[in-house]
TrEMBL record:
Gene3D superfamilies: SET domain (2.170.270.10)
Residues in the signal sequence: none
Record's protein name: SET domain-containing protein
SET domain ranges (all copies): 9-112
Biological processes, Gene Ontology terms: heterochromatin formation
One Pfam match: SET
Organism from which the protein derives: Candidatus Yonathbacteria bacterium RIFCSPHIGHO2_01_FULL_51_10
Keyword Methyltransferase in record: no
This protein's UniProt keywords: Transcription, Transcription regulation
Length: 134
């Protein structure tokens, strides 16, 4: 089982309902490490000045700028019913499986209320849970 934060699953970027998404090519067990969200570490002031959609708060002082395409975790889309979750450990942003994920499934985590209100709500959420409501 790949549960070491240095050992990622086989993941591919491809088209999804929300544009591009990250999909697993192999089953992932519940609780297993999936991928790390990486990028340049910015101060809060630098992040506020830069702005953008790929800024991930580590704490009140540090933000990871995941803009670079080498950061494949940036392709994990938002869902109100996610199959993954992000956890911050030692300043690292680790994505793990909330439930067992089947090969071929797209990966999702909940981006949080602040991000949702600023970037998703104005255009409407495209996750499966919200699509069911329409």
């Amino acid at each position: 089982m790949k549960n070491d934060p240095g050992e990622e699953h086989i993941l591919v970027v491809r088209r999804s309902k929300a544009g591009l998404g990250l999909f697993t090519k192999e089953p992932i067990k519940r609780g297993a490490f999936v991928i790390e969200y990486t990028g340049k570490v910015l101060t809060r002031a630098e992040a506020d000045e830069k702005g953008g959609k790929y800024l991930f708060d580590v704490n009140s002082r540090r933000v990871v700028d995941g803009t670079e395409r080498i950061n494949r975790a940036r392709y994990i889309n938002h869902s109100c019913r996610p199959n993954c979750e992000a956890e911050i450990k030692g300043g690292r942003i680790l994505i793990s499986a909330k439930r067992a994920i089947l090969a071929g499934e797209e990966l999702f985590y909940n981006y949080g209320k602040e991000y949702f209100n600023e970037f998703i709500k104005p255009y409407g959420c495209r996750c499966e849970k919200c699509a069911e409501k329409r």
